[in-house]
Amino acid sequence: MFVKYLKCNRCGREYKLDSKPVLCENNDLGRLDVIYDYEKLERAFNVENLGKRPFNMWRYIEFLPVPSQKYVVSLGEGGTPLLKSTRLAEALGLRNLYLKDETRNPTGSFKDRAMSVSVSMAKFFGFKKAAIASSGNAAAALAAYGAKAGLDVFAFVPDFAGYGKIAQLLYYGAKVFKVRWTEAEDPTVKMMRLVVEKYGFYPSPSFGVYNPYQIEGPKTISMEIVEQLEWNTPDQVFVPTGAGSLLTGVYNGFRDFNAVGLINKYPKMVAVQPEGNYPLVRAWRERQDPLNIRPWEKPPETIATGLEDTFPWDGDAALKAMYATNGYGVVVSDEEIIQAMKLLASLEGIFAEPSGAAGLAGLVKAVNEGLVDKDETIVVLITGHGLKDPDVIRKTAGDAPLINPSLEELKKASENYYKVRI
Questions:
Q1: pLDDT band at residue 185 using 50, 70 and 90 as cut-offs
Q2: Where are the N6-(pyridoxal phosphate)lysine modifications (predicted)?
Q3: Are 151 and 128 within 8 A, CB to CB?
Q4: β-pairing, 82-84 with 129-133?
Q5: How far apart are CA 103 and CA 83, in angstroms?
Q6: Which residues fall within 8 angstroms of residue 52, CB to CB, at 6 or more apart?
Q7: How far apart, in Å, are the Cα atoms of 94 and each of 127, 248, 330, 382?
């Protein structure tokens, strides 16, 4: 085992993994950061051995907190393709644009990486029931891995969560509760906290304050990126951002590989948030204290429902990562996100939900603002499949013309509707 200890990012209290910690006992909303023994890791991890391992995220098990392979709960997550863009890159004037397609994960989003680790740790700790606050993707992932492990899942989702995500949860056997959003504070987090405190459930949201282990899963994204780039580091990575957990995890992957000498630099970490909810980007713009980020003052308003965290729970680590890598933040409109979804699908054949395409919307804006050099190696994370949010897709995709089986009607409809002559 390569975990030295866990340390609260607020009070500094340390915990041994054998004591099975999840929350800081000082109740200070501190995240228990996992601290690894990098000297031991450097001696144990051999790149040459990777060729003997399946290409999924558990090929990097030494860098994950699960004590033994016997506790691993897996559905084959990770090992997603890093696709070199052609048509989209040409449209943006970029020479080295890559798309990390996380839609290929078992439940259709990157959250599978997080919940595979989280449920594996729940198995190690001996929990039987888990609770989550989620807009949908993390809950679906937890429900899937919970089903695999026999873990009973109680999911609290906002009342406006897309039915596609709710249906997925119900099929996995989760107990789903839609919670009315009547105030700026996230009511789903409130409900999760109440059942954890009252009934002792295992908390497993996709942010580190309530579960420090899940944040370790997404760092395998950056490890895969480095390996797929033949052990090179990209110049910039664009990350759709809500609570800041994904950006933190991806940065931590680069940190771990730097610490053991596999790479020797970091990419700029770029946080992309919707204009209806951008507390982390605002904090970056105002150079706020990472431990005192101001929450968004009103309910979020965005088509990207996966990025609706009004408080960036892991914003302290995400903000530090942006500062440390000379990264930056980008705010995008719903219209820019929809356009990015269409570009991604029509030029590269990748169908993403709004949250999943937000990173590309951020790249388009950054290119237009001169923040990206055409020769830089750019990676955009595509984080969730388009079928995750069918209600939004129906509203934004339009419909097809109805014709009789007639070539004349086909010709007219093609010219009138699609502006294409046959």
A1: confident
A2: 111
A3: yes
A4: unpaired
A5: 12
A6: none
A7: 48, 26, 18, 18
Q: What is the CA radius of gyration of the chain?
A: 21
Domain 82-109+216-395 has CATH 3.40.50.1100: yes
Residues 354/395, Cβ–Cβ less than 8 Å: no
- Distance from the first to the final alpha carbon of the chain: 64
The whole-angstrom separation of Cα 199 and Cα 265 is 45
Cβ-Cβ contacts under 8 Å for 412 (sequence gap 6 or more):
none
The predicted-structure confidence for 217-264, as pLDDT tens digits, reads as follows 999 999 999 999 999 999 999 999 999 999 999 999 999 999 999 999
* 3-state SS assignment for residue 61: helix
Quote the tokens at residue 298.
């009103």
Q: pTM for this structure?
A: 0.95
Q: What angle do CA 140, 204, 190 make, to 5 degrees?
A: 100
Using the 8-state DSSP alphabet, how is residue 372 labeled? Answer: S
* pLDDT confidence tier of residue 341, bands split at 50, 70 and 90: very high
Distance CA 400, CA 388 (A): 21
Amino acid at 250: V
Structure tokens belonging to residue 266:
């970091």
383 appears as a binding residue in the annotation: yes
Tell the residue number behind the tokens 């903000």, with chain if given: 319
The full length of the chain comes to 422
Residue 305 known to bind ligand: no
The one-letter code for the residue type at 117 is: V
DSSP letter at 210? T
